[in-house]
Amino acid sequence: MQRNLIRSPFLAALMSMAAIAHASGDHAGGHDHGDATIGEPGDAARITRTVRVDMTDTMRFTPAQISVQRGETIRFELVNSGQLRHEMTLGTPADLVAHAEQMRQHPEMEHADANAVTVDPGQRGEIVWRFTRAGAVEFACLQPGHFEAGMRGAVQVRGNKS
């Protein structure tokens, strides 16, 4: 029986994806190495401040530019004041472009990552994130067409706070 399961193309592909995900993971932190360049999931007990971000059907975030200190743990309170589903995903420019392409191919994809939240119309969501490196961290709505329409922003991470 087990031998037949392994021969299944679906299970073989699933096992390959799991092996790749496991191999690329940062086992101590529970996230992949790409996250390290943008920070890490934050501890809700260590939130230094809350930043409210409004998402609208004009394909804009307000504010679109956010400044934080390195080492800060920020609660992003996302408010979808539009009639369309929106999301906020933190990432590198390359990660956001790649993820936007995945979303075009799979528009109903739901996120279970600490760096992203999907918010239905009239609803709220949150991301708690700790910024560990100075520099810019981008964010975008990756719902099909929204990224391309300019629904993007950036977090400028400044200073030497640890």
From TrEMBL:
Domain of life according to the entry: Bacteria
Any one Pfam family match given in the protein's UniProt record, by short name: Copper-bind
InterPro entries given in the database record: BlueCu_1 (IPR000923), Cu-binding_ET (IPR050845), Cupredoxin (IPR008972)
Signal peptide: 1-23
Coiled-coil intervals: none
Ranges where the Blue (type 1) copper domain occurs: 51-157
Location in or out of the cell: Periplasm
Family annotation (CDD domains): Cupredoxin_like_2
Keyword entries, A-Z: Copper, Metal-binding, Periplasm, Signal
Gene3D superfamilies: Cupredoxins - blue copper proteins
One Gene Ontology CC term in the entry: periplasmic space
Matches recorded under SUPFAM superfamilies: Cupredoxins
Molecular function (Gene Ontology), one example: copper ion binding
Chief localization: periplasm
Name of the protein: Blue (type 1) copper domain-containing protein
